[in-house]
Amino acid sequence: MAILKVTDLKLGYNGTTVIDNLSFSVGEGDYLCIVGENGTGKTTLIKGILGLVTPFGGSVEYSDGLCRNHIGYLSQQQKLTKDFPASVSEIVMSGFLNNRLLAFSYSKKEREEALRIMKRVGVDSLCNKSFAELSGGQQQRVLLARALCAARKLILLDEPTSALDPLATADFYSIVKALSKEGMAVIMVSHDITSAVRNATHILHLSPDSYFFGTTHQYMHSPLGRRLLMPDCPCDVCAHNTEGKVQNNG
Amino acid sequence: MADFFRYPFMVNALIVGVLIAVCCALLGVVLVLKRYSMIGDGLSHVGFGALSIAAVLNISSPLYLSLPVVVLAAFFLLRITENSKINADAAIAVISSSALAIGVFIASINGTNINLQQYMFGSILSVGKSDIIISVILAVFVIAMYFLFYNKIFAITFDENFATATGIRTGFYNTVISLLTAVTIVVGMRMLGTLLISAMIIFPALTSMRLCKRFVTVILTSVVVSVFCVLSGLFTSFTFTDVPVGATIVIFNLAVFLIFLLISALHKLFTRKNKE
């Protein structure tokens, strides 16, 4: 059952439309990767889903019990204050705030949950450090931990691995995959197309004037997917093989 | 010192001063961290313009005009800063100097019955009963808000996009904060002066951030620093009668800031030596 339904969505910024007539849906436990060239509106789409940008037309509907405060979010560029006075645990636990009206302090259960999440992401040793003193990659992990605290049904990740080293990136993908196996819906913007195809259940490929939405399997055999996944294999056999597969499946 | 409390206007100034100091410090931390430092400056200049107009119109209590005008300006300035198309700092500077110019112009046309100097640099004598009532109500609101919603204020200040995205009503909190800032500035500027009130907002937060690394300690230290500076300023200007209170308070703020800066520099030097 779909928890997020996007219908005929028209989105843009500064008056320019970048996405037109986009429709897709995300179900519980789906792992959707959004790929596409620069400027095709991937981040704008994430913001549209979150309600940070007002659509020019169409609709974004949360259904099947999904509310705003069930969503975790990790944004692309952090325009955060450089010397913000805050400890890592303070920031991670602020992810829980969406679930309460008043918040003097956090409950024992939330503290334990936060610690578990920090361990999972590998920042538990930093928990009393000042956020400002961390490296870019460490800050990214802390913000991922915060997003995980906030996420109950859906997590949106906008190029989450851009500041991570290869090992941390691999860790990150396995965390996200495990989450989606546990039933969390994941929407991730990524330029890492091979990992996207390996991990995701669905792919949304945005191009300047069209888009592809379907399962990963369908994507791999679509013209767009083939072009990106087999870019450096010009041999006739390969080309014929992929053509063959498409025909078989088509 | 005992003399101090014999003068009712000094007691009034003390009450309003301390309450405004607390409000400025609390709101200042959020405004400085959100890069809204200049909003205080802009609002106080709009307040100056409103006071001049109130004087020309012979309104008995100028607060009746300046309060709504500055509150409106606060909403307007907040919208500008949210709209990325307009350069926020330039817009604030334009509004700020325009309001100041209008105020000076009107005051000059009207002649002698407005004391420009008093508006610009503040005066203890201008603190009346209505200021006390407003500042008590204001302080109760501000303190209650920080007490009840501390964590949400933290989240919104740290990362507004994340807070909005995950369902916190950031628009509501921003509006409340700008409303409270507007009232704080209108009440505070008559005592400290149009040109100096924004220092009360910026200095305590900036000072405490030199040494404190957690949001809660920054807030608490700001309050202590702010109240200390206001009290020191009031007593100093009482002892040396010719010294204006606003300027004295700002000088104390500057001094404390420099002391904190020095301590932080020494601390860094010391820890680096220790590591070697």
Which class best fits the helix and strand makeup of chain A? alpha/beta
Q: Which value, in Å, is the CA radius of gyration of chain A?
A: 19 Å
Gyration radius of chain B, rounded:
19 Å
* CATH class label of chain B: Mainly Alpha
Shape of chain A: globular
Helix content of chain A: 25-40%
Largest interface (C-beta under 8 Å)? A-B, 36 and 29 residues
Protein topology:
The complex is a heterodimer of chains A (250) and B (276).
Chain A: E1 2-13, E2 16-27, E3 31-36, H1 42-50, E4 57-62, E5 71-74, H2 88-93, H3 108-121, H4 136-150, E6 154-158, H5 166-181, E7 185-189, H6 193-199, E8 202-206, E9 211-215, H7 216-220, H8 223-229, H9 236-249
Parallel strand pairs in A: 3-7, 3-8, 5-6, 6-7
Antiparallel strand pairs in A: 1-2, 1-4, 8-9
Helix pairs in contact in A: 3-4
Chain B: H1 8-33, H2 37-56, H3 63-82, H4 88-110, H5 116-121, H6 129-148, H7 150-158, H8 160-165, H9 170-192, H10 197-211, H11 215-239, H12 245-275
Helix pairs in contact in B: 1-6, 1-9, 1-10, 1-11, 2-3, 2-4, 2-9, 2-10, 3-4, 3-9, 6-9, 10-11, 10-12, 11-12
